[in-house]
Specification:
Chain A: This is Molybdopterin binding oxidoreductase. The structure holds 2 protein chains of 2 kinds. Chain A is α+β, with helices and mostly antiparallel strands. In chain A, 11% of the residues lie in helices and 27% in strands. Chain A is built from 7 helices and 23 strands. The chains are: A alpha+beta, B alpha+beta.
Amino acid sequence: MLWRKKTRDSHTKTPSSLSRRLFLRATTALVGGTLASALPNRLATAANAENLPPNLPSWSQHLGFSVDDRPYGRPSQHEGHVVRRSVKWLTATRESSVNFTPLHELDGFVTPNGLCFERHHGGAPDIPSQDHRLMIHGLVNRPLLFTMDDLMRFPPVSRFHFLECAANGGMEWRGSQLNGCQYTHGMVHCVQWTGVSLKTVLDEAGLKSHAKWLLPEGADSAAMTRSIPMEKALDDCLLAYSMNGERLRPEQGYPLRLLVPGWEGNMWVKWLRRIEVGDQPWHHREETSKYTDLLPDGKARRFTWVMEAKSIITNPSPEKPLSVKGVQQLKGLAWSGRGKIKRVDVSFDGGMNWQTARLEEPVLPKCLTRFYVEWNWDGKSVMLQSRAMDETGYVQPTYADLHQVRGENSIYHNNSIQTWLINPNGEAENVRLG
Amino acid sequence: FAGAKKYGLGTIATPEQIAGWDIDIRPDGQGLPPGKGTFEEGEAIFLERCASCHGEFGEAFGRYPVLVGGEDSLVSQDPVKTIGSYWPYATTVFDYVRRAMPFGAAQTLTNDETYAVTAFLLSMNSIIEDDFVLNQDNLPTIQMPNHNGFIVDGRPDVPPGEPCMKDCKESVRIIGKARQLDVTPETDRATTVAAL
């Protein structure tokens, strides 16, 4: 072992630019091996003339599935391309990794449960509900242990909220890197959550007067922890056991997760087993090593909790090219962690001129908001952008605006305006404007 | 909160129940269990339980986290954020190793083993000497190199206000395309749209 100690100082210099080399090497690893069914649906498949009028298709003559064939329904087999996808080269393992919501395939603002993006740090356990417990202790009058049945006897609360990973768009800081709406913006989902107000459960334990911070912790093998200030905990946090009307999916924290509306997804601790109440933050790994935002001067921002106003045009997008000239319905999503979306503007000329989009009701706070613009495509090149404004008056910034303050190494909280270049052949691609 | 409604739900968590789950450590040392460990003990554990991912010197394989080095790299084009170059508190090392490492075998290290691995990592990063006996009393007193590297959230970075709607720029210039990098899964090959 002596040789190791003698030589280790010379080994403390790590290979520089690992991420940059991966960034470039990734090309070779991605060729081939994908199923045809997994390819984005670039062009509408031509219809089979035998099924079109005046002919009678087989489904008009033969019986379809019975009511007993599918006790839990699934999407049509013709929608098999609408799936979560991942980027293999992003992470060291598949269990501490992320996948992406296919935003370009969805309508409205509710994400189907099976398509909500996943982010795990130690894989997703499927915990038996009867074996799960929530412990609340620390600066409380009565340390408590709850079963799931206990939690469901508190008054239920249902609310729509988006959940966005702090790293959504993080691969785009150094330039346009991933050519797809799913990859540039898909670390977000929005469902109707049902659970119990965190305040109700904390009141049950009784907070001591110097209780200022919470430490939620997961029951998975990553035992995720984050420090949360009491003001937020008592404001609008929920302990959720359902999403879109059914129990949470295992990958979303079954049987219990924390909701921290408007704040970065990392704090929405899944498989929640414990909440410790304290008087100061814990400065754990996920709020020091990770989820801190490095600035050009070498200092890093910590506790960058809120997700700022953001928007994305989902159609057209790289996965959803234009196939014909003429009338088009531009679709997109906007959201803000500071409240409601007030307005979304859309540009067809790379930000030179803007028009205000139509927002689909209801517009809810800290929730995805759908916007539309009807337009005519003349077959010429177009540069599409969307720009959200929230009820605080905050306007979604350009990449140049953010870059000026934060440089290229902050990883998280990229809420800058996205540009899609529509080429004369109808394809859309991810580009960066100077 | 005296006036808040009580539902009488849940049971009192006993000290034994709490002790089994209460694993978190704070920078002031709150939560640290009794125990101790040294660089040498930690090195043996690290080689056996950690080095297959993190490398014998903490340099890491592939995309696994680098644990050692990266001094003065935070202002460079490629910052290397390690325990030594970036982490503000030594207590976080103990807390995280005990709660989540080794990857896939979490919470299998004893308290003494966790002190030893922490001592090894701090020593490799030249923060403590190789003969330092790390324990629950001195771990919170260790000053990390980047202790003062963190500032409060300064956002919003752009002032609110009525945005420009017409003739907003002199010109529009494309400076980069994702397609030129070609690292997108299911690589996007040019297809001609027949309808045009």
